[in-house]
Amino acid sequence: MEKIAVIGAGLIGCAWASVFARAGHTVTLFDIDAKAVETARDTVKAGLVKQRAVGLISEEPDVVIARVSATASLEDALRGADFVQENVRETVDAKKEVYAKLDRLVGPNTLIASSTSGIPASAFTEELACRARCFVGHPINPPSVVPLVELVPAPWTDPAVIERARTLYARVGQVPIVVNREIQGFIVNRLQGALLAEAFRLVEDGYVTGGDIDKAVKDGLGLRWSFMGPMETIDLNAPGGIRDYCGRYGPLYFDIATQATPRKWNDALIGKLEQERLAELPADKRPARSAWRDGRLMNLVVHKRGAANE
Hints:
By secondary structure, this protein is an alpha/beta fold. It has helices spanning about 10-20, 35-55, 60-65, 75-80, 90-105, 120-125, 160-170, 190-205, 210-225, 230-235, 240-260, 265-280, 285-305; strands at about 5, 25-30, 70, 85, 110-115, 135-140, 150-155, 175-180.
């Protein structure tokens, strides 16, 4: 099995380490922060314990964590690595700094994926000798629970690299999608952004509260979207399929789209939404609610795996 180097031992890096290790890979985590290195394996193991409790993994956490090591030496982390998952700060300068080092140290066939959620690989790989093997591998947080990963090549990324990466991610239990060329925000953020723009507009114009927006998604659209996407949804929502649906509702959606002038999220609106959320969930309760969210996501993923064979 390929050796994996995970660069950056924060929450995303540790989640990635569990993804690769539970699939049988040897993983080395690297971080310049000595404290992060010291606690990395404990963080990974804590996640594995939760995953084992709900049946997300079949091996015992002690067996999986034995495949994971942590180091403060970038050279040690990269030695013999076939695949690198980078998770450093979300700035172009930080990416350029670490990629200059990776360029000198990685093997001639090592693939390098960035977990960046918005910076295109072309912004920090153009000057590298290894640039044909660099691309974005953007996860949805946390990748140890939510399987989707967006593969976004730079203009100079070798198509064979994307195919190798797609195969690896699929083999470790992720669900890779390939973005054919770079676009700001990639795919998931643009879809989420479109929904948020309309949600904020509806709240700002007094049509609905933020709380009821949440209900509209979690108890309406989200129920279907948890096991089918919007294309399949509309294909099944008209007797004649997707063409029939577009004929029936296309004019309505076009009219709505013409009304949707882009707006900045102003401070008054943000303040209103913030107060609604604080009334619903005090700030000191967020960590517990986040843990609850992750537990529910794990159970949902386990359910979907079982239902996939139906």
